[in-house]
Amino acid sequence: MTIKIEGFEKLVSLSKDNADAFAKSGAATVKAFEEIAKVQQSLVAENVKKADAAVKALFSVKSPAELADLQSKLAREAIEGAIADGRKLAELTTAAFTTALEPLNARFAALQAFTKIAA
């Protein structure tokens, strides 16, 4: 004997779709962390090169005035670089996690539609 519960198939389908959405979101989150780690690694490598060049430049100064000018220039470049790096990471993080949340947002919308139909 088969018992048919009204809406049961829809509930099973929604549950399967929810599981798929969580899997997609999880995969996108892992990918986002990988991308962010790669960018951070490249920024660190780039900043190490800049620091090496700055130290070499500091050792090549000939006068206190030249030292003061160079320190000012290096400080300004460091601050501008830190701001640019921070902005780059923030934009990447926002885009990556927006993408990771898209499957879940779609499932929440579907669940809301389902509960309105059931009510």
Can you tell me about this structure?
The protein is mainly alpha-helical and 119 residues long. It has a domain at 42-104. It contains two helices and no strands. It has helices at residues 8-59, 64-118. The mean pLDDT is 89.
Give the helices and strands as they follow along the chain: HH
The largest sheet is: none
Task: State the secondary-structure class.
Answer: mainly alpha
Query: Can you count the beta strands?
Result: 0
Portion in beta strands: under 5%
Low-confidence stretches: none
Computed over alpha carbons, the radius of gyration is: 27 Å
- SS field, number of helical segments: 2
Shape: rod-shaped
Helical proportion?
over 70%
Average predicted local confidence, pLDDT: 89
What is the terminal separation in angstroms?
A: 29 Å
Compose a concise summary of this entry:
With 119 residues, this protein is mainly alpha-helical. The protein has helices at 8-59, 64-118. Helix 1 (8-59) runs antiparallel to helix 2.
SSE arrangement:
Blueprint (H helix, E strand, L loop, with lengths): L7 H52 L4 H55 L1
Helix pairs in contact: 1-2
Features:
single chain, about 120 residues, mainly alpha, about 90% helix, about 0% strand, rod-shaped
